[in-house]
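Per reviewer request, we include the raw input and output of the structure prediction for the construct analysed in the revised manuscript.
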Amino acid sequence: MRILASDGMEKNAVAALKAQGHEVVEQFYEPEELAQQVKQFDVLVVRSATKVRTPIIDAALETGRLKLIIRGGVGIDNIDHKYAEEKGIAVRNTPRASSDAVAELALAHMLSCARFVSHAGHSMREGKWEKKAYAKGIEVGGKTLGVIGYGRIGQSLGRMAQALGMKVLAYDIYHVEGLENENMKYVEMDELFANSDFISIHTPAIEGKPLINAETIAKMKDGVNIINTSRGANIDEAALLEALNSGKVRAAGLDVWAEEPSKNDALYSHPMVSCTPHIGASTVEAQKRIGAEIVDIIGKFFA
């Protein structure tokens, strides 16, 4: 098979696929060029940078060669997956491989927000010693974490939070039996907003109005901390910035942005924002697991 890895692929996975006789091309193409190149491949593997929209799928149908699109990661909202599958192109992802990595980054942002880790460290690199400025840190133990989207990543974060002595409120359209206990329970969204000290988002991009907006922020506790490692579209950045400036939102930890690379310097430079450039799944271990799962998917699909 000819495999196009448009956002790169872990080296062991590339070696394994080549050892099986496949050709692997690691090359990023802008949408117009991708529409031409994809016609010559059997498999397209993407991460988050490449968007596989209807025009690219239509272009692939001209030769009929493309049979499988794989998203190396959890969400598949950067692929018009329903349209692809209607046209006979299968779509797969690797939901198990990066769950713990993303959950750990969400936890890291929670701790950074609690203790000013990001900005306190940055100020030291500027030659400052602002100990008193960061004297109002908080502890996560004893606090309540609201998790919106309690799938693999949300559950992983929930377990970590409980280990740190936090109570967990979870909102999800599906309730998994056996997860609730004295420190974790499923609730409705408004109850989660009203009672959470930290709120972490783990859903695909929500169509229409962003999940976190001026209206929903108003329902939250004063001094809430908001964490987003899901999709940038889930937060109204203007509303969040206003809430940070007013103090309604104490701090925010953001790994994903409405526009990437983000140009919202007022938000990512805010002293109460802990920020990273969409690195949720960017661990050595997660990349190896993602790569191995991609190899397994391809092997089983063409068996």
